[in-house]
Structures are given as C-alpha cells and as structure tokens.
Write a structure and sequence with these properties.
By secondary structure, the chain is of the alpha/beta class. It is built from 11 helices and 23 strands. A hairpin with a 5-residue loop joins strand 1 and strand 2.
C-alpha cells in the first residue's frame, strides 16, 4: 500500500494534498515540503470543563523570581535574569558561540541546582572535552547524547533538573511521528512537549535552533511563537566580538543587546561596548564619524566610515554594512537634492566598525556628516559625536534619549556633540559643547568653517 504524503509549509505549518508554489496561509513562496501523512489520533472527550480563575485568585506562592545566568550581558538581554519555567530559543550561524555560551550558563547554574545538558550533535566525550577547554563543569551538571524525545523527558523527570539545555531542537525526534528529525511536524511536536514540561514543573529550557541561509531559524515559523524568548547571535565567526539580541521576550524588552568577546576560555562579557567599538579609530581622516546610538536602554558609541569615489558604472554602487541599505540610498538622494552634491556620479560605501548593526534612524546625521566630510576631503573633529534623524527635505529632526546619549559621549571623553536643534529642550544638563543644527546646510557650513 502506497504511503500517503502531504505537503507542509515550513514557515507556518499549513498542509496541502499537492505541492503549491505559494503557501495560501502565509504567502511564502517555495516553502512547501513533502512529508509523510500522519494518521489522526482520536482522543476520548473527558467532558470536564477547564477551571477558570480570576487573576486575584491565582496562587503566586511558587517562587517566580529571576535567577542569574552567570553573565551580566545575558541577564540584561533576558530582562534581568532567567525566569523559572521559561522556554528560551537560541539561534545563530554555525560556530557563532551558541553552544559555548549555553555550556557556560549550565556550569554556573549547576553550582546551586541540577542541570541537564542534552546534545543531539555531540557525544558525552566531546561535551567533556569542550567543558575542560572552557574550564567549566560541576558534579551537578549532567550530560547525555540523546535524540529520542521520550527518553529525554524520562531522564529529565528522574534527574530532578531545574534547568535543561537541548542542542539542538532539529536533532530531536518523537517516535510517535514517522517523519524525519528536523521536519516541521517533529520540531513542532518536540517543542510542544518541552513547553508542557516547562510550564507544569517549572523547569527552564534553553533550546538551540539551526538557522537557514537567509538567517531565520530553521523549522516552522510557529516555533518562535511557542517559546517565551527568542535570542539571535550576531557577528562574524572570524571576528572576536558577538552580539546577542532578543527579538522576542515575554519577560522583558526586545531592544536590549548583550556584547561578548570570544576568547580561548569561551565568551566573556564586554561591559563597555563603546570602548571596544572605538578602539583603533583613525584620527584626522575624512569620512569618519562617531554616532551615539541607543540599543534598548544602553547608549553605544560606534564609528561610521564613509567612502565616496567616482563611479565607473552606468549606475553608481551603494554598499551599506551595519546600517539599512534603503536608508543609505535615501540619504544620498537627500544630500544631492538639498546640497547639490553629485551623488549619482559617485559610488558610496558605508561601514559600521566592529560588526555591530545600528537599526535606528538616529545614525542619519552621522552617516550624512561622514559622506559630507569625504566629499569635502575635510576630517571631522576627533572629539565630536553625532546623533539625529534626517528628513526628506534635509532637515535634522530630534530623537529620543538625547540626555543619555550626551552623558555616554562625555563619559567616553568626547568634548563636542552635533545634535538636532529641536532636541535642546530635552537636555537637563550640559556636560559637553553642543553644536545644534537645523538642516544639512548647517553641517556643511560647520565643516567648511573648521
């Protein structure tokens, strides 16, 4: 008898009897994959209604306080520490440091409680070798190489663990499903089982997820909706610095980032990212500007470099590394329209040093100042920081947290700051010299008058 198959969308889990080029549910193209059809399981209805409670009647006697992960940077990203009974999904490119950081977290948590480290990719000996290299490991940290879901749940139940790390969810399979490990059905079923155990028994789960070539976590998109927190590891594997960013967090802000440095003994916290990002900054060179950006509640100073050269193509090139490409294209058009510079005849390259990405528009003024400095062949003051948003008519608009940005710039030794004129009213104290500008014309006039 021929085995029945269905086509499942790997993004949302939609099922169809035939292959479709576009998923009718989420609209994603080329996302339908073939899997074996599962026979529906009939469950007897209990007829018992779920007990409903008011919020005031819910028992809060269980300890829900946060516990430290051993890393101040990771605690910042999680919203103040690990929440008991939470399900945390960690994604990132291979070799970025996911397993390294979680093994360090497991070692720290194992000092006061039992921790289980389940690996579907490494043997017990390989886990021990990596732990010895990192200098971690205690008698309360248990490790195993297992991929069977039922065996993992039985081991967790018998160990009395309070923290469990699963590396990775794509290698775990349930024997109740005939599909291969890593398929949409297997990932969804295994994550549901872990979530059920986490909520019922108050066990914290850290789950490692593989990523696709597009950078998204492999498996159904519903996976990110099921968990409590989604962490993404960013950075180049050949560079020493890593950034952990929360793209979803039910217990804290999604704007916080944690900065780490990869060393021989694992990932080390970087408490002052501004100092790290500004190290080795060239002095008295055109095209270099320092922006004071804010990630969550943390102000970070980083260097933006611009290079403008005469194009040899019919259409000029635009390259943006660390900032939004569309934002760079917009700023080039504004500079050409408002200032008269022939940006359409020049290739423009923008780079944020240190491998960090700045998602907010407060870096517009720094990008524009770096481009203007490169076009005029005049370096900007080495002790000046920039922040501000640039509008389509060339005006410089105010941004939030101006006082916090100024305080960080003064702490890092900067004596001047160019900022929007409209932001002066939100400043309580002036620690450095302020150069307020209303439009890009004021920026050009300042640079020419230096």
């Amino acid at each position: 008898m021929k085995q029945k198959t269905v086509f499942v969308c790997k993004e949302c889990g939609y099922e169809a009897v035939k292959w479709l080029g576009k998923c009718p549910s989420c609209g994603t193209y080329m996302s339908m994959i073939e899997e074996k059809a599962e026979e529906p399981q009939k469950k007897a209805a209990s007829g018992k209604a779920t007990e409903l409670k008011t919020l005031n009647a819910i028992d809060m006697s269980v300890d829900e306080t946060r516990t430290s992960s051993g890393s101040r940077e990771l605690d910042r990203v999680l919203g103040g520490g690990i929440v008991r009974g939470s399900l945390v999904l960690c994604g990132g490119e291979p070799g970025i440091g996911k397993s390294t950081l979680l093994l360090q977290v497991a070692s720290f948590c194992a000092e006061g409680e039992t921790v289980v480290y389940i690996s579907g990719e490494e043997s017990e000996k390989q886990i021990k070798i990596r732990a010895e290299r990192l200098g971690v490991g205690t008698s309360k940290m248990l490790a195993a190489n297992e991929t069977d879901l039922n065996a993992i749940l039985a081991a967790i139940d018998s160990s009395g663990a309070k923290t469990v790390i699963v590396d990775s969810i794509q290698t775990i399979y349930s024997s109740e499903l005939s599909s291969a490990p890593g398929s949409v059905g297997q990932v969804r079923e295994c994550t549901l089982s872990f979530m059920r155990v986490a909520k019922e028994k108050g066990i914290t789960f850290f789950i490692v997820g593989h990523v696709t070539k597009e950078g998204a976590i492999a498996g159904p998109r519903v996976l990110e909706h099921m968990v409590d927190c989604v962490l993404y590891f960013e950075g180049e594997r050949h560079q020493s610095y890593r950034i952990v960013r929360a793209v979803k967090n039910r217990f804290g802000s999604t704007d916080e980032i944690g900065v780490f440095e990869m060393r021989d003994k694992g990932l080390v916290d970087v408490p002052n990212p501004s100092l790290m990002l500004l190290s080795g900054r060239p002095i008295d060179v055109p095209g270099s500007a320092v922006v004071c950006a804010v990630e969550g509640t943390r102000p970070i100073l980083s260097e933006i470099q611009a290079l403008c050269v005469k194009t040899s193509f019919a259409m000029p090139r635009r390259t943006a590394d660390g900032v939004d490409f569309n934002r760079l294209t917009l700023l080039c058009a504004v500079i050409e329209k408002a200032l008269g510079y022939r940006m359409s005849e020049n290739d423009v390259y923008i780079n944020v040093t240190g491998g960090i990405r700045i998602p907010e528009n407060a870096c517009d003024l720094a990008i524009a100042a770096a481009i203007i400095s490169c076009c005029l062949e005049k370096p900007l003051p080495e002790d000046m920081a920039f922040f501000g948003e640039v509008g389509l008519t060339g005006e410089v608009r105010t941004v939030t947290m101006a006082q916090r940005r100024l305080t960080e710039a003064a702490k890092m030794g900067f004596g001047k700051c160019m900022m929007p004129f409209d932001a002066l009213g939100s400043i309580e104290k002036n620690e450095i010299e302020i150069v307020s500008v209303k439009n890009l014309g004021d920026v050009v006039a300042y640079v020419k008058g230096m």
